[in-house]
Prior knowledge:
Layout: E1 17-20, E2 23-26, E3 41-44, H1 51-59, H2 65-71, E4 86-89, H3 92-99
Antiparallel strand pairs: 1-2, 3-4
Amino acid sequence: MGKIRFRATSKQNFSRWLVIDDVEHWEMAELPIIEEGQDDILYQVQQEDRIDLLANRFYGNAELWWVIAVANNLALLPNDLKPFSTIRIPSNNRVYNKILKQAPKRRDGR
């Protein structure tokens, strides 16, 4: 299999490529723990909200939905948002300058 490259914002960057019994697969991502920060935004979920649309609104990238999910201990499913609950949105600055940089450097070229 050739090299696979993911965007810097992909949660897949926190996974490793494994070969077990000649079967290739990605292991489950070990996503970073996202501690509360002073610059977090507290957001009240609206009825029409979707986690990918919130990521696009706050980060300019819907692919970062997983950051909001991890920060709020949500299962990684968009329908886990509960209307009128308050969730934590890690700051844009922290996401791009700290959280995404925690992804391990790959040695397998993938």
